[in-house]
Amino acid sequence: MKLTFGVAKTQAIAFTCKAAKCKPYMSGHQVMFSNEIKLLGVLIDKQLKFIKHVTYIVNKVRKLYKKSALITRSTSVKSEVDEDECQDVKMQDKTEAIDSEDVSFWRVVRLNAPEWKSASAASISSLLSGFAMPLFAVIIADFIGIFSNPNLEEVRSKVINYAILFIVIGVASGIANFIVVYYYGVAGEYLTTRLRILLFKHLLQQEIAYFDDKANSTGALCARLSGEAAAVQGATGQRVGTVLQAIGTVVLAVALSLYYQWQVGLVALSCVPVMAIALYYESKLTNDANSGTTKSMETSSKLAVEAIANVRTVASLGREDMFVKEYAMQLKPALVQAKKTSHWRGIVFGLSRSIFNFAYAASIYYGGILMIYKHVDYVLILKSTESLLNGASSAGQAFAFAPNFQKGIKAAGRIIKILNKQSKIVDPPKPAIEDFKGSGEANLQNIDFKYPTRPMVQVLKNMNLAIPRGETIALVGASGCGKSTVIQLLERYYDPDSGTVSQDGIPLPKLRMADTRQTIGFVQQEPVLFDRTISENIAYGDNSRSPSMEEIIEVAKQANIHNFIISLPMGYETNIGSKGTQLSGGQKQRVAIARALIRRPKMLLLDEATSALDTESEKVVQEALDAAKAGRTCVMIAHRLSTVRDADRICVLRDGRVAESGTHAQLMQMQGLYYKLSRQGHM
């Protein structure tokens, strides 16, 4: 299955062959994180052309995760609107993190439902391993008691028995802990893998407007994809085993303590409420700290992605130090929050730990009184005290993982909130035509449109535009008049606020996006090529089949790039480098034209395809475009008179409407808006 992307004019993020082939050029989780972030970065930033691509990319990422799971077991877009016609509206620079959805612990546990067998075995083993410490404490107390026996032979015999008993407990505890670590580790990695794939797939299926929101920048979404899913393991997996182990320890410790000497046990238990309150406040402080850290990390990640993606521009401007300082400033709020909460967390954690010593002192003191006045056997007092306080100490160490647990719950809430968000642009349950092919005819009728992130700017106002089959329509007008918006509506990147966009008389919402986009070839001002061979880049233009080499050569000839390709030492197998850096602007543009033609589109969309080229390159590319337009519907945006004057119809847009329409000669004769623009020499 081949892969194609329709691209709006956005910042470029490298999509390397390492990401496409998923080669493990680093170790462990780094392989997975590095590749998936590159994939997500380019996909969000470049806008998917087909819904079918979601399945293709998700399958690629699924293979990455399988590799990562094996490694773990063995070791235990933002899409900017960024078009000329939209008037600049200042947006709030502050990037807010996605709020987490309130979720219960049991809902998080249900995420691990497919691994219930492994999780059940690990949970039972956790409870059993938790019994070890109280039993150990009781045996130690008994062991101390035998030394009061004057019969040395009997002491020797009991010492051997106790040694064997310790070995048995040690072996049983070791086996139980092995089961806990192994099965929870496996279940946790499967959960992380599943969540990442679900999250990745869900993000790619969102409407383009979702990525226009600054809160959903490429850096923020990559941080969630790599970090949030892993953080969920703090509320599942081995952390749950630790909590269950602590529960087993506490339950048995309390039972044994009350059984052997209930009065001493009650004295020790009196300190438990203080410990519980301390643990509660520590958990609350940790939760508040995590919220602030998440916001800071997402903001800083966004800045880092932008700087690295545009490293050549940063270097040319000499702004490296500025970006480093800005990055440090973005991280500072998290540092300040951590210092603030760590102070109080230290106090409450110290209190929760020291309370055990206070309880021990009270128990020993009261036990001594019972020995003197009630003649209670000191062995029973030791059993009661040691079992409860050693068990409580072990449980306290386990509850030290509470911060990770809270962080996992919050991460799960953020992931679930994203998964619950449904795309506003979806395929119909039953399309009007199955396997729609289209003829190249389109129509925009009574269109009103505002970008979701710029609701105060009316881009199109009751606009009407008929695009007959086989005609070349040129859209001209001042910056901000709505030219590129027309193309984005034809691609159904957005749905209009009112009115209808249709192909062959059928509204686009009644057709599958994959079918309608298959009929369109899109060439933009700055083509995006991938770090693959020339033949692969061209073949990516059609994901419905595997184009033959003969077809690739044919469209390369049509795009006027064949002679150049065969002059290269490797010909069509030449790797063009990241973002096509091995090719000139005109050469990249012609490869992009060939890629658009390989799918045999009925309609071509040209968004200033020659405006960024020099005169010589423009001439060659324009010849290729003229050949490509033959027999096809074409909608072009251009600023140069020489590019649009031969169009079948020129539409002059002003204030979101078609103000004038006609041939070059007709519009010049009218001496209206088009006449004024042409006199300026710039459309």
Walk me through what this model shows.
The longest helix is centred in the middle third of the chain and has 54 residues, at 320-373. The protein has 26 helices and ten strands. It is of the alpha/beta class and 683 residues long. Strand 4 (498-503) and strand 5 (506-507) form a beta hairpin. Helix 11 (262-269) packs parallel to helix 15. The two termini are 40 Å apart. A six-stranded mixed beta sheet has the order 6-7-8-3-9-10, sandwiched between helices. It has a four-stranded antiparallel beta sheet with strand order 2-1-4-5, covered by helices on one side. It is elongated. This is ABC-type xenobiotic transporter. It is found in: Membrane. It holds the Pfam family ABC_membrane. Its main location: membrane. One of its GO terms (molecular function) is ATP binding.
Number of strands: 10
Content-based structural category: alpha/beta
- The radius of gyration computed from the alpha-carbon positions, rounded to a whole number of angstroms, is 34 Å
Q: How far apart are the termini?
A: 40 Å
Task: Identify the overall geometry.
Answer: elongated
Helix content: 55-70%
Question: Mean of the pLDDT scores?
Answer: 77
* Major pleated sheet: 6 strands, mixed
Strand order of the largest sheet: 6-7-8-3-9-10
